[in-house]
Predict the structure.
Amino acid sequence: MNDISTSLGKITLKSPILNASGTFGTEYFNFFEQEVLGAYVTKTITLKPKEGNPSPRLYETETGLLNAIGLQNPGLKSFLNNDLFELKDCLTIPLIVSFSGATEDEFIRVMEALELHSGICGYEINISCPNVKNEGIAFGTDPDVVFKLMGKLAKLTERELIVKLSPNVADIALIAQAAEAGGASALSLINTLYGMAIDWETGKSRLSIPVCGYSGLGIKPVALALTYQTTRAVKIPVIAMGGIHSWQDALEFFYAGASAIAIGTANFSNPLTIPEIHHGLQTFLKQHNLNLRDIIGKVN
Ligand SMILES: Cc1cc2nc3c(=O)[nH]c(=O)nc-3n(C[C@H](O)[C@H](O)[C@H](O)COP(=O)(O)O)c2cc1C
């Protein structure tokens, strides 16, 4: 059997495929075996519950999806008392908890609370949200802020520490290097791009928040370029995502340098995307007598 496993910072994943945060629940495991995933990533949680934005919150475009969910989640307390138990009960694969905060202190408080619980293999730190102490400018857009935040979080944990990067920055390599220098053990990218849709008949925004998140097929070339640039700027592994719908798409990201990939929007149109990509990758590796590690970063 050709080897499809991959290294992610401190851990080895039996499969290089993850689910993208916020797009996937364990109900998908009614359709396929969870072991096709290398790890399960939760929806982003925050210290306090968030209702998210009013509807309409989703709009499908010709080439992707616009979302204005607004990090709706039940908050840390409810996550610890309910979701975490259910996840630990259900999962046989490693669990990665995604979380975010509006201040440095909030990130620290969430991580300190999660550290008290077993069964969590790592964290994905979502830094794409506004920093209330920095005039609402997203954490992930300032290398100094990212460096300091990661320095504080890295001191609190021995677990895998993944930072999820926003594509909405001038130079993603600078942010990636700041996260690495601060102590991140892996990176994931990309979060959603800025997007917008307007009803041409009425002139109204199609979503409750005019400028929202754009994901899916149309963002693939952008995600691929940012994966390529980032993997050349850092030594830590990168989990790449953005518009991956097929095993051929996945291969492009491995050639660009990704150590693992994640699937988001594609799950909505085809719930079997993940097992199909897993099968396609295995078949490709077998046909070419390759291990996955042979092709990572080998774009020419
Ligand atoms: C409906 C929806 C909800 C999302 N929620 C989150 C979230 O809670 N946390 C996060 O880090 N990213 C979130 N994302 C971003 C995805 O994890 C992913 O980074 C992005 O959609 C690009 O991948 P894709 O094109 O495969 O969907 C969300 C995306 C969508 C479409």
The CA atoms of residues 245 and 251 lie 11 Å apart. Residues 20-23, 43-44, 65, 67, 69, 71, 98, 126, 164, 191-192, 215-216, 219, 241-244, 263-266 surround flavin mononucleotide (CB under 6 Å). The chain has one domain: 6-295.
